[in-house]
Amino acid sequence: MLKSLRNKKAGSPPIVILTILVLVLYTTTLFSFIRSSGKIVAELESPIFLVNPAYAPEEALRFHVSEIGQETLIKTYIEFTQNKEYTYIQNPQSIENNAFFDVINPNLNESFSQRFIENLNSDINKFNFGDDENLNKIKSYTKTGKFDGENYFLSVVGYNQEQINPEKVSIKYSPEIRLTYSLNNYGLDSFEEVYQAKETCKKLIEGVLDCFVDTLPNFMVSYTELTLKDGKHDSLTLTSKRSFLIDGELKKVSFSFLF
To answer: Could you tell me the pTM of the whole model?
Structure first.
């Protein structure tokens, strides 16, 4: 019996070692090492398993894209409130220079997705990254995104880069940065939320202003009744409670509509 127990104990370390080896083998399946002329080349899908200098540059890329993208999101939102080339209103009509909000634009999410990428490329191209070659490569990276009405999902994919002393060890990887921007997190109610608030509050005989205040927490609300040539209209002005740094200036998002 004692001998049997000893045998079991003796067998435990090899099992542990085998388990560790399996885990190591699993975590290194992304790596393909080729030794050529005394130089080691490693091709990686991501440098996440590495310490500096391969991982740090991607974090720098992520930081800059995140910061630029936040401003791009607000600028794109403002662009859609102006109801010109881009709009949140379906077939916007103007009554004495006042936009009439009836139905939300059914193509809003698709249009917002495309316009955000256009603005992001423009903002990144204008940004001064100095002499940092790694950061300047962002300008040529592929950028795609999708807007669901509240959140913008951004993907930025780069081409192969080399890191770590190219004479001895060259690590090639393709950076891929995924970011999510939420309008609510940045202090803005979505256009869908504005539309739903309008549809709910316009049915009330009293307490219309309080209704908008309660349903659109990110905006200061001004509600009035306008008498125009074609009759009386309810007018709503929404002004963000938060200020945003846009093109070097602090600005609030503000827009109005009739309903």
So the answer is: 0.75
